[in-house]
Design brief:
about 180 residues, mainly alpha, Arc Repressor Mutant, subunit A, 11 helices, elongated
């Protein structure tokens, strides 16, 4: 940034933050990183970030709750994946854990079931072992535990009338033993 633009670093920081917040909510850490990338002095950045927090424009708790609600419903992510995404956005671990508590075991299982049901029609031409492996992989990428995934996939394939013999390696998975 040109020296004349930094004559009032707080004004520059405030403008950068407000412009960034116009598109979508951001965490305090995301804004701090933006200001650091633009070479805003640390004291000016902290002053502006504190002020924006005081007036409610930066609220990591509200951000985390909205993120969890949106990503769990829209993308079907499990608690583990949601917590990892929040950490990557700079949300404090305690705040992330509190936000993720909104998703209970039943919600997580139901979401996994819906994901599998949506994918199942494209798996009908495959043998049971291949379908199981692909469905389990999809759920694993979304953060679901092996036990939960195995149970949901097995139930869906059984209900769908998959012809092949059950896949022994997945049938042996105990849902409770694999939960975090």
């Amino acid at each position: 940034m040109a020296p004349e633009e930094m004559a009032d670093p707080e004004s520059v920081a405030r403008n950068l933050c407000l412009r960034a917040l116009t598109g979508a909510p951001k965490t305090r850490q995301q804004l701090a990183d933006l200001l650091a990338d633009r070479d805003v002095p640390d004291d000016a950045a902290e002053t502006v970030l504190d002020r924006l927090s005081d007036v409610g424009l930066i609220d990591d708790e509200a951000f985390a709750q909205a993120w969890v609600s949106s990503r769990q419903a829209g993308r079907g992510l499990a608690r583990r994946a949601l917590k990892a995404e929040l950490r990557a956005k700079g949300v404090d671990d305690d705040v992330a854990a509190t936000a993720v508590e909104a998703v209970d075991d039943d919600d997580e299982r139901e979401t996994a079931r819906r994901l599998v049901e949506r994918k199942l029609p494209s798996m009908r031409r495959l043998d049971r072992a291949t379908a199981t492996r692909r469905l389990m992989g999809m759920l694993a990428r979304k953060g679901y535990s092996g036990g939960l995934a195995a149970g949901v996939v097995r139930e869906a394939l059984d209900a769908d009338g998959a012809d092949d013999v059950a896949v022994a390696e997945f049938d042996e998975l105990d849902e409770d033993a694999l939960l975090p």
